[in-house]
Amino acid sequence: LREFVSDAIQEAGGALVSTQDYQSQSLDTASSVGLRIQFNGEIEHLTALLYQLESARPLVFIDEITVTSSAAQRRIKRRIRSRGVETKRSSRMSLTVKLDIFGYMVGSEI
Q1: Distance from chain centroid for Cα 91
Q2: DSSP string covering the chain, please?
Q3: Are 97 and 66 in contact (CB under 8 A)?
Q4: How far apart (Å, rounded) are the C-alpha atoms in residues 52 and 34?
Q5: Is the pLDDT of residue 79 over 90?
Q6: CA distance 57 to 69
Q7: Is 97:14 a contact under the CB 8 Å cutoff?
Q8: In this predicted structure, which of 3-7, 21-25, 38-42, 60-64 has the lowest mean pLDDT?
Q9: Backbone angles phi, psi at 83, to 5 degrees
């Protein structure tokens, strides 16, 4: 799942920031695999990624999505800098997207 999502974000034109495993709800007949993702990009990158997730086989489900614009990020960083804390400069991509996704694996797929 991690490799698929990393490739999908790159193909869509986004910049992967981080991935992290997370516990998603399993079924009686299948184990779930969850992944928390953060990437930077434009709205076109997000829509391309969502399309890839929608058409993925085996199925991939979005549990939660958070989209933040760079304007909101700049306000937060200004507040932090005004307190004397230095922050790392981010890329020029206008959106930060956080996704929790999961899929199911049955029996021998695990």
Answers
A1: 16
A2: -HHHHHHHHHHHT-EEEEEEEE--PPPSS-EEEEEEEEEEE-HHHHHHHHHHHHT-SS-EEEEEEEEEEHHHHHHHHHHHHHTT---PPP-S-SEEEEEEEEEEE-GGG-
A3: yes
A4: 17
A5: no
A6: 30
A7: yes
A8: 21-25
A9: -90, 0
Half-sphere exposure of 81 (CA within 13 A, CB side): 9
Q: Pick the more confident residue, 84 or 49.
A: 49
- Of 110, 105, 94, 19, which is closest to residue 58 (Cα–Cα)? 105
Which amino acid is present at 7?
Answer: D
Give the mean pLDDT of 25-32: 79
